[in-house]
């Protein structure tokens, strides 16, 4: 027979190899320990009851037998109550002396003190099994050898006490010892196999849990929504992206829930039902129309996860993607492609602008009428502004990293804010809807006047687009909080969706299909160029909830303030 090496498969293995070595499950060891300790207490109780029954029948009972049974019962009860199991070594340590040792000595004494024809040899199976299952192979074989020697010693002692033939006693002791050796060997190997299989199952379970955690982490971080739906239309799992996409007015739903419970989700439930019915992947563009909310368009495609064991259980995995974000990415790609053409277009735009500016200057020299000269001044001013806008748009299209410009002058925020708001309200006929409150006094900030104008106009135009027609629906304010100078633009519009908030300041992203999506991105670029910070939050004013954009500026010293005359020329 070929020899198989390794402690897991060898019959004997290393001398110190046990079923419950380091790495094995402690719960199984403790459970088997408690089972054996309970069995010891039960056997001790039966022995004590047996002696009482024999005494009640009037049969002779050795007083030492009763005392031995009482002491053994007390010892097993103490060990069962207070002892704490620990994995054994390869020798008879203290733990195994007060368990296996006590059992062997107690059962040997019972055999020695017996007066009748009762045979207590079968009780030795308990310490042999205890040492074999919970200990290493050497401890199991040592216990079996001890029991065999005690049986042979008892047979020799009886042969000295009586003149009868002792061959039968020695033969019975030898056969019993051989049986205990076989029990020890087989029980130890079965315990090794049990421990090995349990260790493999535990390792597989740990690997499965780890893989499940990795899958859950990947699914939770996906931008697309993922739903797992069973044949009854119950959503068993939903990642955060899908919960945001399906969010109704009452908040997000946590799985499990019935997909058809909301009227807006019925189109998705029908798509899942169609997937189960046709047993094929499906794809469709659906619209979610919740009450008091903007309609949301989604692209949904499904995959069927059928059972491999032939059962009827199958799941539908549905992937959801916001069509608005898809369109935004398409616009981004289109704008990126157009950006590669911007250099040539810039030259084409600059040349006509230069010609217009020069012709306007020549025309202004021959004009005497003040009204006509005012018109040429407006042409020159707007041509210069258009040239600056073209230059900055080209810089954005080229994706050039521009270092912050060193500012030698600064602005008094309150003065410039009032001028810009007044001009904007006049041009947009929004004076009744606009409220301006300044609170920074003579505090100066580092920011170019023209860039601040572009920043505020973008924020005001954005507020006007979503604000109501009520008085003071748009509020502009300045203040100083925690040594920070701030500009606040608030409007009473509806709250922005979370998907919009996450892409709010990205280029070419807009909640409206006709918008280029560059307004807020340019605001962020201008703020970063001047060391300022722009952000969004939901805020309440006069018990009215609204959207608020805030800009935090870098403060400047008084000697850097730009004169009013220079500001007038820029506006």
Protein architecture, described:
- The chain has 571 residues and is α+β, with helices and mostly antiparallel strands.
- It has 4 domains: 26-203, no CATH class; 225-325, Beta-Lactamase (2-Layer Sandwich), CATH 3.30.450; 340-398; 411-570, Heat Shock Protein 90 (2-Layer Sandwich), CATH 3.30.565.10.
- 54% of the residues lie in helices and 15% in strands.
- It has 16 helices and 14 strands.
- It has helices at 26-56, 63-82, 94-113, 125-134, 137-161, 167-220, 240-246, 266-278, 323-339, 342-365, 370-398, 413-428, 449-466, 498-502, 519-529, 564-570; strands at residues 225-229, 234-238, 257-258, 283-288, 296-306, 314-322, 411-412, 434-437, 444-445, 474-481, 484-491, 533-541, 544-553, 555-556.
- The strands form 3 sheets. A 6-stranded antiparallel sheet has the order 3-2-1-6-5-4. Strands 8-10-11-13-12 form a 5-stranded mixed sheet.
- Helix 3 packs antiparallel against helix 4, helix 3 runs parallel beside helix 5 (137-161) and helix 4 packs antiparallel against helix 5.
- The longest helix is centred in the middle third of the chain and has 54 residues, at 167-220.
What brief labels describe this structure?
five-stranded mixed β-sheet; 54% helix; 4 domains; elongated; 571 residues
Number of strands: 14
Q: Tell me about the biggest sheet? A: 6 strands, antiparallel
Number of alpha- plus pi-helical segments:
16
- Kindly state the mean pLDDT as a whole number? 78
Helix content: 40-55%
Class derived from helix and strand content: alpha+beta
Q: Give the N-to-C terminal Cα separation.
A: 101 Å
**Strand order, sheet with most strands:** 3-2-1-6-5-4
Spell the H/E element sequence: HHHHHHEEHEHEEEHHHEHEEHEEHHEEEH
Measured by DSSP, the beta-strand proportion falls in 5-15%
Low-confidence stretches: 1-17, 398-408
Radius of gyration from the CA trace? 45 Å
- Taken together, the total number of domains comes to 4
């Amino acid at each position: 027979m070929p020899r198989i090496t390794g402690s897991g498969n060898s019959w004997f293995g290393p001398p110190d190899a046990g079923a419950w070595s380091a790495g094995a499950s402690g719960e199984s060891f403790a459970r088997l320990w408690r089972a054996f300790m309970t069995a010891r207490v039960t056997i001790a109780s039966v022995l004590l009851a047996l002696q009482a029954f024999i005494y009640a029948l009037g049969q002779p009972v050795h007083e030492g037998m009763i005392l031995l049974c009482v002491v053994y019962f007390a010892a097993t009860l103490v060990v069962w109550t207070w002892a704490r199991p620990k994995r054994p070594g390869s020798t008879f340590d203290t733990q195994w002396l007060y368990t296996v040792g006590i059992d062997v000595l107690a059962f040997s004494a019972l055999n020695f003190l017996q007066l009748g024809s009762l045979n207590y040899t079968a009780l030795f199976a308990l310490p042999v099994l205890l040492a074999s299952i919970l200990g290493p192979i050497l401890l199991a074989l040592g216990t079996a050898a001890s029991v065999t020697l005690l049986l042979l010693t008892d047979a020799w002692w009886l042969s000295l006490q009586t003149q009868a033939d002792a061959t039968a006693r020695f033969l019975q002791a030898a056969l019993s010892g051989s049986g205990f050796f076989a029990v020890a060997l087989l029980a130890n190997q079965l315990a090794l196999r049990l421990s090995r299989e349990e260790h493999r199952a535990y390792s597989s379970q740990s690997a499965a849990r780890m893989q499940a955690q990795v899958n859950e982490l990947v699914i939770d971080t996906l931008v697309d929504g993922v739903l797992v739906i069973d044949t009854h239309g119950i959503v068993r799992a939903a990642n955060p992206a899908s919960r945001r996409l399906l969010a109704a007015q009452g908040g997000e739903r946590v799985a499990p829930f019935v997909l058809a419970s909301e009227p807006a989700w019925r189109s998705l439930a029908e798509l899942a039902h169609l997937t189960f019915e046709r047993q094929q992947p499906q794809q469709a563009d659906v619209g979610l129309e919740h009450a008091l909310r903007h309609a949301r368009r989604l692209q949904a495609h499904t995959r069927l996860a059928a059972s491999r064991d032939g059962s009827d259980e199958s799941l539908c995995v549905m992937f959801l993607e916001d069509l608005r974000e898809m369109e935004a990415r398409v616009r981004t790609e289109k704008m990126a492609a157009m950006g590669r053409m911007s250099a040539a277009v810039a030259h084409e735009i600059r040349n006509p602008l230069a010609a217009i500016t020069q012709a306007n200057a020549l025309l202004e020299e021959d004009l005497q009428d003040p009204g006509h000269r005012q018109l040429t001044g407006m042409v020159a001013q707007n041509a210069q502004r258009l040239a600056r806008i073209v230059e900055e748009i080209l810089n954005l299209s080229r994706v050039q990293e521009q270092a912050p410009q060193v500012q030698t002058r600064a602005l008094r925020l309150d003065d410039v804010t009032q001028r810009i708001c007044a001009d904007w309200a006049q041009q947009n006929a929004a004076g009744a809807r606009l409220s301006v409150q300044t609170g920074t006094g003579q505090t100066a900030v580092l920011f170019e006047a023209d860039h601040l104008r572009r920043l505020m106009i973008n924020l005001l135009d954005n507020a006007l687009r979503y604000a109501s027609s009520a008085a003071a629906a748009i509020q502009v304010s300045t203040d100083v909080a925690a040594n920070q100078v701030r500009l606040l633009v608030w409007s009473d519009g509806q709250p922005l969706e979370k998907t919009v908030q996450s892409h709010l300041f990205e280029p070419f992203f807009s909640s409206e299909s006709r918008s280029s999506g560059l307004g807020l991105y340019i605001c962020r670029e201008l703020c970063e160029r001047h060391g300022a910070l722009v952000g969004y939050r939901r805020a309440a004013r006069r018990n009215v909830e609204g959207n608020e954009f805030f800009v935090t500026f870098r403060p400047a010293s008084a000697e850097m303030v730009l004169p009013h005359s220079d500001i007038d020329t820029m506006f």
